[in-house]
């Protein structure tokens, strides 16, 4: 398999360093996935911009993590599943709901279940959701326009999920207890 370097703040291409610095400030470290993505300044800068929009308050952080974890599991992206399991718990998702998502089941919370179901459906149907899929989402209390915001989060996570599958970054010790295999 092709080896992809995991860049650091010191070794990354110059155009990737500002994005990595921002991620280091946000997480207290440069996650290995970001170090892998930094090999393409265009991808790391695009990723940061899209994730800033995804975390802009459209959804609560626990809702965002529900989406990101669901997306990682649906895409069978092992590094992101561990990372987002860690963050989901940190953001207040219950262990039961995190485990349910990791097992491709829906969370117990109705709103989180609606988010998870829609994200999984978008990925599995490659964006071709039905009126019934949208109706199930709005029945949980979301406005129909929030479907577009779910698409934004799915798009953002697709970048990290695909990159993780291609580059296979090592899982940091901090996330080892959340390791996952499909």
From TrEMBL:
Record's keyword annotation contains Oxidoreductase: yes
Keywords: Oxidoreductase, Peroxidase
GO MF annotation terms: peroxidase activity
InterPro entries in the cross-refs: AhpD-like
Protein name: Alkylhydroperoxidase family enzyme, contains CxxC motif
Native source organism of the sequence: Paraburkholderia megapolitana
Classification of source organism: Bacteria, Pseudomonadati, Pseudomonadota, Betaproteobacteria, Burkholderiales
């Amino acid at each position: 398999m092709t080896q992809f370097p995991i860049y650091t703040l010191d070794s990354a291409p110059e155009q990737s360093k500002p994005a990595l610095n921002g991620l280091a400030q946000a997480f207290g470290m440069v996650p290995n996935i970001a170090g892998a993505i930094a090999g393409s300044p265009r991808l790391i800068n695009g990723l940061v911009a899209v994730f800033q929009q995804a975390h802009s308050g459209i959804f609560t952080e626990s809702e965002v993590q529900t989406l990101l974890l669901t997306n990682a599991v649906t895409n069978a992206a092992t590094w992101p599943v561990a990372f987002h399991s860690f963050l989901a718990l940190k953001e207040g998702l219950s262990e039961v709901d995190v485990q349910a998502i990791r097992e491709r089941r829906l969370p117990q919370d109705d709103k989180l279940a609606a988010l998870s179901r829609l994200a999984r459906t978008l990925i599995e149907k490659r964006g071709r959701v039905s009126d019934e899929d949208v109706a199930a989402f709005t029945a949980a209390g979301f406005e129909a326009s929030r479907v577009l915001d779910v698409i934004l989060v799915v798009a953002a996570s697709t970048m990290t999920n695909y990159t993780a599958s291609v580059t296979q970054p090592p899982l940091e010790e901090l996330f080892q207890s959340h390791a996952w295999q499909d």
